[in-house]
Amino acid sequence: MREQWGSQAGFILAAVGSAVGLGNIWRFAYAAGENGGGAFLLVYLFVVLTLGVPLVVAEIAIGKHGRADGVTAFERLAPDSAWRRVGWLGVAGSALILAYYSVIAGWALRYFFAAARGTLWDRPPGGFAEGFSAFIAHPIEPLGWHAAMMALSMAVVVAGVARGIERACLWLMPMLALIVVALAGFALTLPGSSGGVAFLFGPTWSALLDPRVILAAMGQAFFSIGLGMAVYITYGGYLRPEQRIPGPAAAIVACDTTFAIIAGLAIFPAVFAFGGNPAAGAELAFITLPDIFLAMPGGRAVAIAFFFLLSAAALTSMISLIEVPVAALMQRAGLRRRVAVLAVGGAALLGGVPPALGYGPLAWLNVTGRPLLEEVDHVVSNLILPLAGFGLALFFGWVLPAGTALELAGIRGVAGALLLCAIRYLAPAFILGLMLFRLASG
Length: 442
Ligand code: PHE
Prior knowledge:
This protein is mostly helical. Helices cover 78% and strands 0% of the residues. Helix 2 (22-34) packs antiparallel against helix 11 (211-225), helix 3 crosses helix 18 (372-399) and helix 3 (38-66) packs across helix 20 (413-440). The N and C termini lie far apart (50 Å). The model has no long low-confidence stretch (mean pLDDT 93). Bound molecules: phenylalanine (PHE). Residues 18-19, 21-24, 97, 223-224, 226, 229, 231, 317, 320-321 line the site of phenylalanine. Phenylalanine is lined by residues 18-19, 21-24, 97, 223-224, 226, 229, 231, 317, 320-321.
């Protein structure tokens, strides 16, 4: 018997669990920070609405109809064609993301434990910057936390779709929503916090037309929603025939976006209230924020809540990144779930070693001078995810007959016409345009 979700809410929360992760908190904050805040947010919302929702609908529809993993679902819709490669790109991409994502998740887990035990506040003379650099450059410690996150995620996925993934997300996602809202509420009461709100919501118009900002916003949207990585195909494959697609797809994307904005409202007001630098880059969550937590009233409790949020949000994303290759291995290689989870988790554990050590012993291992982890993250977000989204749009918009596509998605009338228009023309043109710009600008 093929595994299924226990309920519609379970499916939605599992998908939201995949979407909401480090991308919404750690990555959104620094991408918005580096790209001018408000302008970035506007472009981001545009991409989410016009590309995000349609492509999630397409992915779920492909999975639900195929009732299969990311590769087999393409085969069932277009037998004997090369389109299954789009599925392979998603499966391979998931495994790649899993490897380095787990390393950052491990940092978050370490900060959570250190905050809970109080050791986070034994600051080295150089402050959190030095503490963080020393930690990520250590030849062993980051590997241990990376392994811990991987083991936790594997333990959830081994328990299966409804009993493992769905149950974990049914518990964790409402809890995380409460925590992020409470954190934002608290940050907004800090004196001087309004600068952070203005930063996030006040667009700088010149940045709006900057192709780099647009590219960064698209990369961030694709990463945060988790587009093209066959997550929604795989999760859609566990839907029952009578379950509908458009409503849940819109809800998933809306939750993901709202979560990122509220997380931004927890982070930027605090950064501004304490005179931090919003454009601090990838280290915003691990250096700038701890400094702020230390300075603010009740900050130690806030730090525990924040790093719990970060680790648990990462966990629910990692389980989806494991499930995608696991489902493919189970179906295509006939492996049992337990064996597939061990294979995928083990491979990702090894794959995470170079990025984990890229700040210390393997610092020489890079192409552009940037740490390996950030380099891989850039290639994934700005190249692999958009490419997979491009393939998905071509397949759903042009390979499937229009009538079939709309029927699979369960959309009719004006909404159907808009969906097709977005997937046929807007998504491919937008993605291709940005890719060409990227090539041209080197
Ligand atoms: N969306 C997740 C996040 O925001 C990361 C992710 C990417 C998950 C791709 C699945 C697929 O952190």
